[in-house]
Amino acid sequence: MGNITGKVWGDTSVIIQNPLVELHKINIKAGYKCSEHKHVHKWNGFYVISGTLEIHVRKNNYELTDVTTLRAGDFTSVSPGEFHWFNCVDDCVALELYYPEPLSEDIVRKSVGGKTETKTPYKLIATLNYPDLSTFASVAAKATSPCCNVCDIDPMTNKCRGCDRTPEEIKAFGLSHMPEGYNK
Fold first, then answer.
1. 159, 165 contact by CB (below 8 A)
2. In 3-state terms, what secondary structure has residue 101?
3. In a domain? residue 181
4. Taking a C-beta distance cutoff of 8 angstroms, is the pair 142, 153 a contact?
5. Of 71, 101, 131, which residue sits at a domain end?
6. Closest CA relative to residue 153, chosen from 143, 144, 163
C-alpha cells in the first residue's frame, strides 16, 4: 500500500493510482465527516468493508440532499459535478474509488431519429399560378437559394421553411430548371 495520509476524520492510503483510476483504503472515526466537495470530471465510489457510512449528495436536478447509508458489502457512487460528503456513524473501513466520466455518456439527445419525409418540389410548383412571363422573369432573377427538398410554406411568412423562399420564387426557380417539354 502507498503512503498513509492523516485526515481530520481518520486516514487514507493509496492502493492504486494511475491516469484512469484511483483506489484508496480509508479508515474513518465514528462521529466525523469529510468536507463538502465535488469532483468536476470524476465519479467517486464508496465500498464499505466494516462499520456504517452515510454518503450525502446534493443533487443538481432537485432541491434535496440524498443520503445513502452503507454497511459492510454496500457500494454507491456520486456523479461528477455533485457536491457530497460522508458522515461516519460507526468506525468504518472503506474503499474509495475515483474514475473518470466515461465517454459513452457524452451524448445528449434532443430528438429521436426515424424516416425522413421528403416532398417533391414539382408537386408544389405545379399548384402555383403564374400571371405572366415578365413576373416569371423578375421572380426567377431573385431566386438565389436552391431547393433542399423540404417544401413547407409557413402561412404567417408565406415562405418555405426549408429554403426560405416565397412560392413565387420556388416556382420561378423550379420552372427555370425544368426539363424540355414541361408545360406548367
1. yes
2. coil
3. no
4. no
5. 101
6. 163
Q: What's the grid cell of residue 103?
A: 465517454
The answer to the question of residue 106 being in a domain is: no
pLDDT digits (tens, 9 = 90+) for 78-133: 999 999 999 999 999 999 999 987 665 555 666 777 777 665 544 444 445 555 55
**Domain endpoint, select from 50, 70, 101:** 101
pLDDT confidence of residue 183: 47
Q: Which three cell numbers stand for residue 114?
A: 426515424
Say whether both 28 and 94 belong to one domain. Answer: yes
The verdict on residue 107 lying in a domain is no
Distances from the Cα of 117 to the Cα of 41, 120, 149, 171, 177, angstroms: 40, 10, 9, 21, 23
Q: Which amino acid is at 95?
A: L
Cell 456520486, residue located = 78
pLDDT digit string, tens, across residues 127-179: 455 555 556 555 555 554 456 666 778 888 888 877 777 888 777 666 555 44
Residue 159 one-letter amino acid: K
pTM for this structure? 0.55
What is the extent of the structural domain holding 84? Answer: 4-101
- Distance (Å, whole) CA 135 – CA 172: 9
Contacts 24+ apart (CB under 8 A), 101-106: 101/41, 101/42, 101/43
**Total domain count for the chain?**
2
